[in-house]
Design the sequence.
């Protein structure tokens, strides 16, 4: 295996909008925590279940995260992205809301430092996302991959004008390095039908 092949083997391509996606997940998670705590307080902390059973909302959070992961793994294209972001944010928020039960020996949901722990964890997620996005400049193969991803989505559903423009912008940045692939992806974009704009 040549050095070039070995380098390519370990390449990854970041999603061009990963930062905004992570930010949205964190915002939805924070909102979920606030809504959950407010609702539980107003309702007097009801118990879901009977007898020795209690269905903690952490389980609902795990279910939301599972659906988000399975959706992201099963559906090609950007169409499921809003769904996975919302479900991931809700799942993360419901999970973090019960963190007091997992850092205390008494399973104390009302553990006061829990709010600080949640805050630190969410800020850490955002900080790591920003570091990965801002400190490591985008490389030509990532721009190519992003354009190809948009083209693949366009093959299935057609392309909005702004999505086609995004893909062409990625290709323009990569054209000095990977001209053959740029030509091929441009041809694929040209073959995609135009989707009329919507209110969304």
Sequence:
């Amino acid at each position: 295996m040549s050095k070039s092949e070995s380098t390519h083997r370990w390449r990854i391509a970041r999603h061009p909008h990963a930062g905004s996606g992570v930010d949205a997940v964190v915002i939805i998670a924070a909102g979920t925590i606030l809504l959950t705590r407010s609702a539980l307080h107003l309702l007097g902390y009801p118990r879901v279940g009977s007898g020795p059973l209690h269905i903690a909302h952490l389980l609902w959070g795990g279910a939301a995260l599972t659906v988000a992961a399975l959706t992201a793994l099963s559906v090609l294209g950007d169409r499921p992205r809003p769904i996975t972001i919302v479900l991931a944010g809700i799942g993360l928020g419901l999970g973090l809301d019960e963190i007091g039960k997992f850092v205390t020996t008494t399973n104390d949901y009302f553990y006061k430092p829990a709010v600080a722990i949640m805050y630190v964890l969410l800020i850490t997620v955002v900080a790591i996302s920003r570091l990965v996005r801002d400190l490591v400049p985008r490389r030509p193969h990532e721009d190519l991959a992003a354009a190809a991803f948009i083209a693949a989505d366009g093959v299935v559903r057609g392309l909005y004008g702004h999505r086609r423009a995004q893909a062409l912008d990625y290709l323009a940045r990569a054209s000095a390095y990977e001209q053959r692939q740029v030509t091929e992806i441009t041809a694929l974009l040209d073959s995609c039908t135009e989707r009329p704009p919507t209110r969304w």
Residues 1-6 have pLDDT under 50 and may be disordered. Residues 60 and 68 are 12 Å apart (CA to CA).
